[in-house]
């Protein structure tokens, strides 16, 4: 290999990369906030005894889980403005697309967790005369949230990585800045390696925390 | 706005061509990635500290970075490092194999963990050589337990493979985007593409769920 590495080509342009990382982090946090709240609502709808409520929710979840995220994002950016005559900023669109995707995946996590909430707890809630809303918010949600936490966090990391896809529709996130920097400097190896390491540096610690939580739970259950 | 889905049949051939590339890419990488994943899982459980460290770093790295950047890396950096031109199909296969290997190794690792310690002891007591121990005792059981997750991984791979459109491979997504740009009818075309992906992936997820129930019942007996 007669290729001389020049890390300076990348480090000289750190500004745009940092801005890109900030956009990526904003996308991730906003999508997670949306996914965590909307996901729980989706799970409640999926578990609803009313068919008319359940079916659309199930269709929503299955559709988002069974199509590629990149198709969803491109669809969102091209079709939503045309279909609904709705023109939003690219950042908002990115958050909505990623947030809906995450809501579908988190919905599944919440559903499994809600079903794992012990029957006695619901009975107790009824016996105490809690309204359905009260028992959902104060009995089911706290327990389900605890049970679902490792999966929710893992989904959160996955969406951090998936957020790189918005680079394809020209949202200036970390991936987008990396692409344009690699093209501008003709230094793809340095740029992509460094940016991959940046992504890794963010997601690795979080996944370690998830592993730690799971081990702690395994011990607590035993 | 006015939707006209009647333009779609004209592009059926092109979409079928794209789907065929997607399917080929997926099937090849299921096999290569599965094999790599199994080897990695063995390496992560090996007695050698070096093997363990290298395989752990590999798996964590590929799981901790976006697939898109892995693809870009393989497409733009690997040819420079190796000094050879790789066809885009080969690059796509390499990138998705490396990624699938990391994902699959985790599946194998947890299923290997469920093969009881006694079985290993029994193998040693019977004096089985390491190769027989792996291929005739550990592998069949680990494979059975890992099957549902492996199949789910395969479905994920089918979806993830759409990323190769970003590096210009003519898969279903790429063909769809091209048609959508040329006809200026993104709603019809992209919806159709999404539905094609769905039509393949959804029945498979149902089948996996059914199979999982059967395997669980079988293992419980």
TrEMBL record, chain A:
<keyword id="KW-0813">Transport</keyword>
<keyword id="KW-0029">Amino-acid transport</keyword>
<feature type="transmembrane region" description="Helical">
    <location>
        <begin position="59"/>
        <end position="78"/>
    </location>
</feature>
<dbReference type="GO" id="GO:0043190">
    <property type="term" value="C:ATP-binding cassette (ABC) transporter complex"/>
</dbReference>
<dbReference type="InterPro" id="IPR000515">
    <property type="entry name" value="MetI-like"/>
</dbReference>
<feature type="transmembrane region" description="Helical">
    <location>
        <begin position="84"/>
        <end position="103"/>
    </location>
</feature>
<dbReference type="Pfam" id="PF00528">
    <property type="entry name" value="BPD_transp_1"/>
</dbReference>
<dbReference type="InterPro" id="IPR043429">
    <property type="entry name" value="ArtM/GltK/GlnP/TcyL/YhdX-like"/>
</dbReference>
<dbReference type="InterPro" id="IPR035906">
    <property type="entry name" value="MetI-like_sf"/>
</dbReference>
<feature type="transmembrane region" description="Helical">
    <location>
        <begin position="147"/>
        <end position="171"/>
    </location>
</feature>
<feature type="transmembrane region" description="Helical">
    <location>
        <begin position="192"/>
        <end position="213"/>
    </location>
</feature>
<keyword id="KW-0812">Transmembrane</keyword>
<comment type="function">
    <text>Part of the binding-protein-dependent transport system for glutamine; probably responsible for the translocation of the substrate across the membrane.</text>
</comment>
<protein>
    <submittedName>
        <fullName>Polar amino acid ABC transporter, inner membrane subunit</fullName>
    </submittedName>
</protein>
<dbReference type="GO" id="GO:0022857">
    <property type="term" value="F:transmembrane transporter activity"/>
</dbReference>
<dbReference type="GO" id="GO:0006865">
    <property type="term" value="P:amino acid transport"/>
</dbReference>
<dbReference type="InterPro" id="IPR010065">
    <property type="entry name" value="AA_ABC_transptr_permease_3TM"/>
</dbReference>
<feature type="domain" description="ABC transmembrane type-1">
    <location>
        <begin position="21"/>
        <end position="210"/>
    </location>
</feature>
<comment type="similarity">
    <text>Belongs to the binding-protein-dependent transport system permease family. HisMQ subfamily.</text>
</comment>
<keyword id="KW-0472">Membrane</keyword>
<feature type="transmembrane region" description="Helical">
    <location>
        <begin position="20"/>
        <end position="47"/>
    </location>
</feature>
<keyword id="KW-1133">Transmembrane helix</keyword>
From TrEMBL, chain B:
<keyword id="KW-1003">Cell membrane</keyword>
<keyword id="KW-0813">Transport</keyword>
<dbReference type="GO" id="GO:0043190">
    <property type="term" value="C:ATP-binding cassette (ABC) transporter complex"/>
</dbReference>
<keyword id="KW-0029">Amino-acid transport</keyword>
<comment type="function">
    <text>Part of the binding-protein-dependent transport system for glutamine; probably responsible for the translocation of the substrate across the membrane.</text>
</comment>
<comment type="similarity">
    <text>Belongs to the binding-protein-dependent transport system permease family. HisMQ subfamily.</text>
</comment>
<dbReference type="InterPro" id="IPR010065">
    <property type="entry name" value="AA_ABC_transptr_permease_3TM"/>
</dbReference>
<feature type="transmembrane region" description="Helical">
    <location>
        <begin position="71"/>
        <end position="99"/>
    </location>
</feature>
<keyword id="KW-1133">Transmembrane helix</keyword>
<keyword id="KW-0472">Membrane</keyword>
<dbReference type="Pfam" id="PF00528">
    <property type="entry name" value="BPD_transp_1"/>
</dbReference>
<keyword id="KW-0812">Transmembrane</keyword>
<dbReference type="GO" id="GO:0006865">
    <property type="term" value="P:amino acid transport"/>
</dbReference>
<dbReference type="GO" id="GO:0022857">
    <property type="term" value="F:transmembrane transporter activity"/>
</dbReference>
<protein>
    <submittedName>
        <fullName>Polar amino acid ABC transporter, inner membrane subunit</fullName>
    </submittedName>
</protein>
<feature type="transmembrane region" description="Helical">
    <location>
        <begin position="20"/>
        <end position="42"/>
    </location>
</feature>
<feature type="transmembrane region" description="Helical">
    <location>
        <begin position="189"/>
        <end position="209"/>
    </location>
</feature>
<dbReference type="InterPro" id="IPR035906">
    <property type="entry name" value="MetI-like_sf"/>
</dbReference>
<feature type="domain" description="ABC transmembrane type-1">
    <location>
        <begin position="19"/>
        <end position="208"/>
    </location>
</feature>
<dbReference type="InterPro" id="IPR000515">
    <property type="entry name" value="MetI-like"/>
</dbReference>
<dbReference type="InterPro" id="IPR043429">
    <property type="entry name" value="ArtM/GltK/GlnP/TcyL/YhdX-like"/>
</dbReference>
């Amino acid at each position: 290999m007669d290729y001389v590495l020049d890390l300076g080509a990348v480090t000289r342009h750190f500004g745009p990369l940092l801005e890109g990382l900030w956009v990526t982090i904003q996308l991730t946090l906003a999508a997670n906030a949306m996914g965590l709240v909307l996901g729980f609502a989706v799970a409640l709808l999926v578990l609803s005894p009313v068919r008319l409520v359940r079916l659309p929710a199930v269709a929503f979840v299955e559709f988002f889980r069974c199509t590629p995220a990149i198709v969803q994002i491109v669809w969102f950016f091209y079709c939503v403005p045309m279909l609904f005559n709705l023109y939003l900023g690219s950042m908002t669109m990115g958050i909505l697309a990623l947030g809906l995707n995450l809501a579908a995946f988190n919905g599944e996590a919440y559903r499994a967790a809600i079903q794992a909430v012990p029957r006695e707890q619901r009975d107790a809630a009824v016996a105490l005369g809690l309204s359905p809303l009260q028992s959902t918010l104060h009995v089911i949600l706290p327990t389900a949230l605890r049970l679902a936490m490792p999966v929710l966090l893992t989904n959160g990391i996955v969406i951090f990585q998936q957020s790189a896809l918005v680079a394809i529709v020209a949202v200036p996130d970390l991936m987008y800045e990396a692409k344009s920097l690699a093209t501008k400097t003709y230094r793809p190896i340095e740029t992509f390696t460094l940016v991959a390491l940046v992504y890794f540096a963010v997601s690795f610690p979080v996944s370690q925390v998830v592993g730690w939580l799971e081990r702690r739970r395994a011990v607590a259950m035993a | 706005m006015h939707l006209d889905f009647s333009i779609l049949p004209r592009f059926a051939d092109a979409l079928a061509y794209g789907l065929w590339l997607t399917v080929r890419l997926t099937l090849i990488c299921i096999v290569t990635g599965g094999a790599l994943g199994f080897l990695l899982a063995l390496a992560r459980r090996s007695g050698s500290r070096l093997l363990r460290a290298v395989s752990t770093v590999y798996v964590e790295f590929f799981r901790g970075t976006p697939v898109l950047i892995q693809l870009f890396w393989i497409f733009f950096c690997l040819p420079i490092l190796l000094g050879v031109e790789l066809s885009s199909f080969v690059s796509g296969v390499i990138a998705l194999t490396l990624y699938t290997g990391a994902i699959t190794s985790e599946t194998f690792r947890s299923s290997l963990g469920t093969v009881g310690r006694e079985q290993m002891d029994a193998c040693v007591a019977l004096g089985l050589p390491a190769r027989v121990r792996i291929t005739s005792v550990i592998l069949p059981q680990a494979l059975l337990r890992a099957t549902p997750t492996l199949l789910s991984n395969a479905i994920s791979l089918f979806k993830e493979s759409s990323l190769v459109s970003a590096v210009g491979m003519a898969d279903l997504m790429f063909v769809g985007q091209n048609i959508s740009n040329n006809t200026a009818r993104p709603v019809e075309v992209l919806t159709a593409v999404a539905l094609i992906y769905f039509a393949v992936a959804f029945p498979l997820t149902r089948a996996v769920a059914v199979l999982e129930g059967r395997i669980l019942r079988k293992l419980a007996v």
